[in-house]
Amino acid sequence: LYHIVINTDLVTYEEAAQLIGAEVIRRYKLDTPVRTATITGQRAAVF
């Protein structure tokens, strides 16, 4: 992060985007599959 902010000529835009994206994925645990709840015996709501 230091090089992205201070030494901007050392990190390309692509590298900066990859670093930021990887941190967002790690921080919000977006690399793990989402577990969905299974509802049995009920009809789906229609809106």
Structural features, described:
This protein is mainly alpha-helical and 47 residues long. It has one domain. It is built from two helices and no strands. It has helices at residues 2-5, 13-27. The longest helix has 15 residues, at 13-27.
The radius of gyration over CA amounts to 20 Å
Please identify the oligomeric state. single chain
Instruction: Give the strand tally.
Output: 0
What is the general shape?
Answer: rod-shaped
Order of helices and strands: HH
Low-confidence stretches: none
Helix content: 40-55%
Number of domains: 1
Keyphrases for this structure?
single chain, 47 residues, mainly alpha, 0% strand
Condensed summary:
The protein is an all-alpha fold and 47 residues long. Helix content is 40%, strand content 0%. The termini are far apart.
